[in-house]
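Input record, target 12 of the design panel.
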């Protein structure tokens, strides 16, 4: 879920050190030099987790959300006061830039934690569920891949990049921890049935109801990426 929140760290690896003292670790790379890009991504995760105020980039770890509506036609699922952590522990798996297609593709492996409040009413997998209270999620081994479609804009005689849209996919490589406090508080039988389902099938539940949470996190990160792009001309971000 956020993972993607994790997008910024990868793109940050492309910044030229002449524009930000905090990016002195960056080695400018050509698109074909995937090792150079991946090395920058690894250094960028650590260097940019606290944000870059001079580029309008907010703190990336943790991320906070007042409310995320992850409902579907068969399920009301509202998250409130949500905190997402884990960016600083992500490992870079891939960073690829394709100038011909105007895309940046990145892949990360992360342990992501989410804590907040939830409101749930409807069907999850094969079970009717309902309740509200605290939610705790630990995605022990999340692999997420995101493709950024890039467009170029001109401002004050300079060319700048902008993320026009993104697509993403993810895979849970280990069994996750998922806790909904307060499910069916007034019905012990239903509460036990719901908690058993969650305990035995956490990844299946995340896959069914977590899509909009991932999208919300990535959308927030893309805002930060575009803020950064708006401050730095394209010629200072890439070598080709």
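The sequence produced for target 12 reads:
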């Amino acid at each position: 879920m956020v993972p993607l929140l994790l997008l910024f760290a990868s793109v940050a690896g492309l910044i030229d050190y002449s524009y930000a003292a905090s990016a002195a670790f960056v080695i400018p790379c050509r698109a074909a030099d995937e090792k150079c890009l991946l090395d920058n991504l690894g250094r960028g995760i650590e260097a940019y987790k606290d944000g870059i105020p001079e580029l309008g980039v907010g703190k990336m770890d943790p991320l906070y959300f007042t409310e995320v509506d992850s409902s579907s036609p068969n399920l009301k699922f509202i998250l409130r006061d949500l905190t997402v952590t884990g960016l600083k522990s992500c490992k870079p798996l891939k960073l690829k830039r394709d100038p011909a297609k105007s895309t940046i593709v990145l892949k990360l492996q992360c342990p992501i934690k989410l804590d907040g409040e939830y409101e749930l009413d409807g069907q999850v997998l094969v079970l009717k569920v309902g309740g509200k209270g605290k939610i705790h999620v630990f995605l022990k081994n999340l692999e997420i891949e995101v493709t950024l479609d890039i467009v170029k804009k001109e401002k004050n005689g300079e060319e700048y990049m902008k993320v026009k849209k993104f697509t993403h996919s993810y895979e849970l490589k280990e069994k996750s921890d998922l806790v909904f406090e307060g499910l069916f508080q007034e019905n012990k039988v239903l509460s036990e049935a719901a908690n058993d389902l969650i305990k035995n099938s956490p990844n299946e539940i995340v896959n069914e109801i977590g899509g909009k949470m991932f999208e919300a996190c990535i959308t927030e990160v893309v805002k930060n990426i575009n803020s950064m792009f708006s401050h730095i001309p394209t010629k200072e971000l890439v070598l080709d």
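Residues 2-10, 12-25 have pLDDT under 50 and may be disordered.
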